[in-house]
Amino acid sequence: MSNSKHFSVAGKKAIVTGGAGFLGRVVVRKLAERGCTDVIVPRRRSCDLSCAGDVARLLDSTESDFVLHLAGTVDDPAGRTDIATSFSNNVLMATHLIDAAARRGVAKMVTVGSASSYSPSAPMPLREGDLFSGLPDTSRLAYGIAKRLPVIHAYASRLQHGFLCISLIPTNFYGPEDNFDPDTSYVIPSLIRRFVEAADARVAGVTLRGTGGATRDFLHVEDCAEGIILALERYQGMHPVNLGSGTEVRIADLAAQIARLAGFSGKILWDARYPDGPPRRVLDTSRAKREFGFRVRRNLQDGLRETLDWYRANQQDARHDEEARAVASRV
Prior knowledge:
With 331 residues, the chain is an alpha/beta fold. It has a single domain (13-330), classed as NAD(P)-binding Rossmann-like Domain (Rossmann fold, 3-Layer(aba) Sandwich). It has helices at residues 22-33, 52-62, 83-103, 141-161, 187-201, 221-234, 251-262, 286-292, 300-313, 315-330; strands spanning 13-17, 38-40, 66-69, 108-112, 165-170, 172-174, 205-209, 215-216, 218-220, 241-243, 249-250, 267-271. The protein starts with 12 loop residues before the first strand and ends with a helix.
């Protein structure tokens, strides 16, 4: 492990953008468990992070010791029409936060990117040194590039201002309280909902998009949040760091595993008219282990069972949240 100076969060004041979200809530809880006394979670209705003036007022009014930037606009590759808006929001939020924090002498900042930033042609497992070797997959091009840019900005701010801003690249994370909305959820929560509903309805088969042949790396949200906090506490390097399980899982195998856990015994069919995305994605996590002692604590099977059990116990609440998001999007 790196011998970098420990950054204690105890008694400090923090800004956590995206702190009310799926990952953010776990990060905020872990900060409190470590003695962080004051966590500010900005909300869009009162603080638009894509506006430089709002960001400046946020930092001036809070005088926070550190910033964790988890907020972001996530693209849906299945047909969003606001890709340019999403791109500019992601770029502007990170740009304004890094600039404002650097100029105000904030002690430390962490930005959280995405494994979608890697090129599908990069060698496996994906290593941080290959982050800029080729463009992201065309289906996530704008999102992947937007999530790359803060890495360069953090590096430049370190050189010009001596600002300690570190960049993390997590893989797909999942867990209890994830987003199970069929229109916006990602792989694991989407599959859990499909198979739970299919098992309950006793349907003969479920058709999934793609071929099932692609592979992905999945990380439990508790492990992802712990990795973020460990990096905050222990890492001071200039290079980005992957956070992942280091394990490659075929989507067809994942679907079969979730179907078994859900009690679904029908057929699983695949609609190859839909693209799989990059054929493989798994992260090399040796830098995170070496630099700040990051290790995965939850295996996939236990994590899937925990997430599925949570969904079964909270289906009504999950659907209420979907309705609330739908209403909010129309306001």
